[in-house]
Amino acid sequence: xxxxxxxxxxxxxxxxxxxxLKYLAYLLTGSIALYSDALExxxxxxxxxxxxxxxxxxxxxxxxxxxxGYAKAEYFSAVIVGVLIVVAALSIFRExxxxxxxxxxxxxxxxxxxxxxxxxxxxxxxxVVLLRQGRRARSPALTADGRHLxxxxxxxxGVLAGVVVAGMTGWERLDLILAGLVAVNILWSxxxxxxxSVGGLMDHAVPEDTLGLIRRRIADEATGAIxxxxxxTRQAGRMIFxxxxxxxxxxxxxxxxxxxxxxxxxxxxxxxxxxxxxxHVEPEGKAKHQGIPVL
Length: 295
Fold this sequence. Notes:
The protein contains eight helices and four strands, in the order αααααααββαββ. The chain is of the alpha+beta class. The chain folds into two domains: 3-201, Cation efflux protein transmembrane domain (Alpha-lytic protease prodomain-like); 208-293, 2-Layer Sandwich (Alpha-Beta Plaits). It has a four-stranded mixed β-sheet with strand order 3-2-1-4, with helices on one face. α1 (3-29) runs antiparallel to α2, α2 (32-58) packs parallel to α6 (173-201) and α3 (73-101) packs parallel to α5 (140-169). The longest helix is centred in the middle third of the chain and has 30 residues, at 140-169. The radius of gyration is 25 Å and the shape is elongated.
């Protein structure tokens, strides 16, 4: 089991623990805002489970049916997470509406608030773990899970403070207003996850800093060639795909051109993890006098 998959499995356990704590806090207080907080944690459980499934699928090696591998499975996971987030927000709006029509007395029991605070601390620690590992492994599934958890931490802190104020002032509808704000925040989080996932499914290019590194390595290692042009990149989950045309002198032997390609590929693989390079060699008559000049 990879480190990324272990983190994802750990997320399932953490999410279940946090869900249990938040639901207990709701039972102790009767707060709709804390109920909305618990419902968001239910989404976290589904999110973590989906991420585990996606990571297991994306880790499969390329085969005849999928010659470029299964890395995009993580984006489908992130799309599912986005949809679940939206469903959770709509469920909270429903509870707010019903609570507004039929207000229920709020019991801001210190024990319930303490349990909710403990759940928030656990979420905050795990959020840092997910975001760190997600960036390191270039995992859309872990990153989406971490970002959603971050919004959960922020909304939980706001809800907890609001419930305390509502209990002290007796303004019970403040509890419902807070729950509505949580739902809006969840909707925004869902939109962000969906937008980034669709971008991944549409084969977006690598970030500018990674592209700059790729261009420099090609220029440094292509000694003997003339230029490299038509450089294209795309990112699918943790995988990065690069292809370009390498122009060499017309009289150069195939063996020499192949050696240059090997040198470039080795350098790129040493600098960028999980990269697949495809180079099309062309004679000097195909030079465009643009792109990447060879140093």
